Structure formats: structure tokens, C-alpha cells
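Design request, C-alpha cells follow.
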């Protein structure tokens, strides 16, 4: 008897080339640091254009936390070429600063001295800045210096029409398919942390003297012996307010309703803070979430928004367009922080999540077991004989991984056939080797490197960041690329100037209009 995965693979096989129309894009964060590996205290480099309006180079939470953005691509090769290009573009404009190629930050100044991202004095820019002020008050500035990679992925709209999905329209069927994918991603994302987690250590200064379960590797470095990704552990974004939010992944309307309630419901602690201190804005509102994107999740349903449009409204009215995977660590052994092997595996993994049977979670639409499996792997994923829970039954991590890899292999085979890319199976074998040999995982390699070289995390991070920044500087830009870069820089500055010239409404009125644009989902 054929499984659902086998039936769906057979259905996709009947439409040759369908998977060649998948799109993927990347957002890669990275701190700017001084040549000695201390957080850069300088403003966003003029040579990189406007952080508010540049299409490929912006900042995330901290002023020094660059975010490098590609457009969407129909192949992994073209995606990696774009990633490499934006790194060369960035390195060319950094002066003597470095791009820190690790998820856990370099040496930071005191909490109060970490500069928050600045986007100019336009209403649009100030909204982004005040939102980040709110994050600083709610979570602390240190957390705003953690970096990662976001992998954006979409299927051709016709893809969902080949699956047995319910819904009155193509839009509702596609959204149901993406939500089903998200459920399976939540079930299996612990595997990504095992395979790609690369932050088992951090600089001692990061914890600011707080008591933790971390152990000392040396006088400057803390770690957990079997950890894969401290970035994704409870050392990252956490607070009492967000711990009460349990998203529903059983259907899009319920998910959107819960997100709407979180963005629209006051939280007592934030009400006590208020929105102003000493006459200045400190947060956009006093609600559990200031905006939708404040919810820190491993995966998000996404839809491109128009100017002034809220994500909840866009998703409610036009459905899910793509998904954003947010749990990938920066790979410290790759100059651009991600390899082609990783990208190809992600394609196959996401196809597996879309085609595999995906039962609903419990009544609340949230799976506590999956959350606990994920937490276990980020803290002790390389522990020999580690057991997880699969439907309440203990199973070894390696045993469950073998089950998943069997399904992903069929997906990788079909991707190779339909895209003409022969390297999907090679990428799968490359990752499968990590299941057979724990020492091949990035987290194990980081720890082994530190022990072999007697290096601190900071020394290791500085050495690799210098090497990779120099790599991209030496690669440089062609004359045509340099001309293109200058045109983008000037256009971004002009666009920011136009935003700042618009004084049609006050900032207070602009914030009011922004909140008024939030509509309850249909």
C-alpha cells in the first residue's frame, strides 16, 4: 500500500519540470566588528548606501548587525552566486572593519552602549527604530546582536493543485499546503539543529555575569559539551510574555487570529513601561507584540506586503506566498556562512515536509512534544544515544533521522530529475554522513577546532572572520558590478531623502495610522 508521500511524489512526477519553478532566497545577518573583533560602534557605512532603502544591504536589530539579502532564484547555483556577490559588495564598502561570520556575537560593549539600528528621520525610518527600542527594553540589547540565516522558499502555485488538498480556491489550497508543511517542519526541525547547528560556544561576556548551566571551556569561552546551537536555546530570545503565546499550526485563520490577538492585546509589564520616557518613544505600543515580526519562531508563513500593509492583513486576504526558515546558524566554515550542500538539502527537506502526511496537532494547534525535542537537540544533540519522543514513544535521534532521510532521499531524487541538477543526492549523502559520524557536525567541528588549537571562541571567530572578509575583498568587484553598486547606493540614498522630505503627517499620526492598519483576520 502506497504511503501519502509516495502517492504525492507520483503525482508530482506527472508534471515534469514543476519543481524547477521553485524559488529560494536568502537573508544572512552578520555583525560589523573592528579589526580586533569588537563590535563596531560606527554608523552604517556610507559606502553601503541607505539601510532603510537599499535592496540588498540593510541592518537588523543593532546598528552593527548587517542583513544581506538576495532576490529570489530558480536554482541553488544562482542563489549561491547572489550570496557571494552581496558579500563582495559588502566587503568592498567595509573599510577596515570585518564581517563577523558566526551566529554568536563578537566582544560587545556594555549593554547600554550597544547602538540600536538607525534609519534616518523619516516616519518610516523612525517606526523601524522605535520598534527596535521596544525590543531593547523587552529583551535587552545583547540579544539583538545574535545572527542567523533565513532561508526563504516557495513552490510554483500549480504545485499545490497536484496534491489532495481541501479548499474552495487555489489560494486556500496553497495556504493549507504551506500550513501542512509548517507542521511537519515543526515536527522535524530538530534534525536541522543537529545537522547545521554551529554555535555550541560563546564568549563569556555575552551572559553578562548571569548564572547559567554553561561550562567553562577556557577563561573567555563558555559551552555545553553536547550542544549544537546555543543561539536557538533559551539563551536567545525569551521572556515571560512570549512564553504565553502558542501559535496554532492547524489552519491559517486560527494562526492569524492568535497572532492578531498577540499584537492587539496589552501586556501588564509593557503597560507599566508606557510608550514614552522623558518625552521620547520607547516602544510602539504596550501589547504582547509590537508588530507581527516580533514573534520569534523557527519558521514563518509569509506574503509580500504593500506599503503600510500589515502582514496579518496580507496573509488573510491573499494567503501564504512562501515560507521563511529562521533557525539556521551561520556556518563558520563557509566564507558566506552557507554552502550549496546546505541549500540543496533545505530544498529536499522542505519538499519532504510538503509531501509527507501531516496530521493536525492537538486542539490548541501547538505541539509541546516537538518543542521539547527541538530544545533537547539544541542543548545536547550530539550526546551519544540521545533519545527524543515520537508520538510519546522514546526513539533514538539517529534512528528517527534514518527514517526521515529515507523520505528525503525520494524527494532529492525527484528534485534532481525535474531541475536537471545532479547534486541533490550528493548533498543528501553529505548530510547523512553526519548522522553516521557525530564528529562531522559543525558544532562538533567548532569544539574540536578550539580544543586542538587551544583557542578561545573569540580568537577562532576573529581568525575566520578576517580570513573570509579578506577573501571577499580580494575577489572584489568587476567594473560593471562596481558601477551597478554605485547606482544602487545613490538610488537608496535618494529614496531615503524622498522619505525624509515627506512631512505630510507627524510621527505620532503616522504611528496611529500604522496601528489602525491592523485588521482582524477574515
Amino acid at each position: 500500500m502506497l504511503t501519502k508521500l509516495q502517492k504525492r511524489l507520483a503525482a508530482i512526477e506527472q508534471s515534469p519540470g514543476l519543481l524547477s519553478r521553485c524559488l529560494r532566497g536568502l537573508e544572512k545577518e552578520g555583525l560589523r566588528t573592528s579589526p580586533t573583533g569588537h563590535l563596531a560602534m560606527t554608523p552604517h557605512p556610507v559606502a553601503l548606501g541607505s539601510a532603510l532603502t537599499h535592496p540588498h544591504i540593510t541592518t537588523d536589530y543593532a546598528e552593527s548587525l548587517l542583513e544581506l539579502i538576495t532576490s529570489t532564484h530558480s536554482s541553488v547555483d544562482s542563489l549561491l552566486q547572489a550570496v557571494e556577490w552581496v558579500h563582495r559588495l559588502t566587503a568592498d564598502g567595509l573599510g577596515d572593519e570585518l564581517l563577523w561570520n558566526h551566529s554568536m556575537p563578537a566582544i560587545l560593549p556594555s549593554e547600554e552602549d550597544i547602538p540600536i539600528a538607525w534609519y534616518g528621520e523619516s516616519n518610516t525610518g523612525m517606526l523601524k527604530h522605535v520598534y527596535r527600542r521596544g525590543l531593547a527594553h523587552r529583551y535587552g540589547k545583547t540579544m539583538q546582536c545574535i545572527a542567523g540565516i533565513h532561508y526563504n522558499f516557495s513552490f510554483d502555485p500549480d504545485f499545490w493543485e497536484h496534491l489532495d488538498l481541501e479548499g474552495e480556491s487555489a489560494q486556500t489550497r496553497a495556504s493549507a499546503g504551506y500550513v501542512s508543511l509548517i507542521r511537519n517542519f515543526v515536527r522535524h526541525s530538530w534534525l536541522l539543529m543537529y545537522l547545521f547547528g554551529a554555535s555550541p560556544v560563546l564568549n563569556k561576556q555575552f551572559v553578562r555575569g548571569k548564572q547559567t548551566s554553561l561550562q567553562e571551556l577556557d577563561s573567555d569561552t563558555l559551552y555545553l559539551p553536547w550542544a549544537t546551537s546555543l543561539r536557538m536555546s533559551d539563551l536567545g530570545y525569551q521572556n515571560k510574555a512570549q512564553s504565553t503565546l502558542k501559535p496554532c499550526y492547524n489552519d491559517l485563520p486560527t494562526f492569524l487570529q492568535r497572532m492578531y490577538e498577540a499584537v492587539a492585546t496589552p501586556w501588564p509589564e509593557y503597560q507599566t513601561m508606557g510608550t514614552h520616557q522623558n518625552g521620547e518613544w520607547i516602544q510602539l505600543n504596550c501589547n504582547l507584540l509590537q508588530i507581527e515580526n516580533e514573534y520569534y519562531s523557527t519558521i514563518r508563513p509569509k506574503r509580500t506586503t504593500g506599503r503600510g500593509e500589515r502582514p496579518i492583513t496580507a496573509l488573510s486576504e491573499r494567503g501564504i506566498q512562501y515560507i521563511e526558515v529562521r533557525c539556521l546558524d551561520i556556518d563558520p566554515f563557509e566564507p558566506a556562512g552557507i554552502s550549496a550542500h546546505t541549500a540543496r538539502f533545505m530544498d529536499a527537506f522542505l519538499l519532504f515536509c510538503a509531501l509527507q502526511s501531516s496530521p493536525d496537532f492537538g486542539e490548541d494547534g501547538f505541539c509541546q512534544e516537538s518543542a521539547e525535542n527541538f530544545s533537547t537537540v539544541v542543548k545536547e544533540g550530539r550526546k551519544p544515544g540521545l533519545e527524543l519522543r515520537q508520538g510519546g514513544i522514546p526513539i533514538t535521534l539517529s534512528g528517527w533521522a534514518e527514517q526521515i532521510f529515507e523520505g528525503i532521499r525520494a524527494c532529492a531524487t525527484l528534485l534532481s530529475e525535474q531541475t536537471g541538477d545532479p547534486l541533490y543526492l550528493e548533498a543528501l549523502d553529505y548530510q547523512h554522513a553526519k548522522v553516521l559520524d557525530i564528529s562531522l557536525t559543525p558544532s562538533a567541528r567548532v569544539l574540536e577546532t578550539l580544543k586542538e588549537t587551544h583557542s578561545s571562541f573569540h580568537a577562532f571567530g576573529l581568525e575566520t572572520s578576517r580570513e573570509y572578509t579578506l577573501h571577499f575583498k580580494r575577489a572584489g568587484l568587476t567594473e560593471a558590478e562596481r558601477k551597478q553598486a554605485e547606482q544602487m547606493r545613490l538610488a537608496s540614498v535618494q529614496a531615503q531623502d524622498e522619505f525624509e522630505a515627506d512631512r505630510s503627517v507627524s510621527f505620532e499620526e503616522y504611528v496611529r495610522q500604522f496601528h489602525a492598519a491592523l485588521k482582524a483576520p477574515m
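Comment from the thread starter after seeing the answer: thanks! The longest strand covers residues 23-33.
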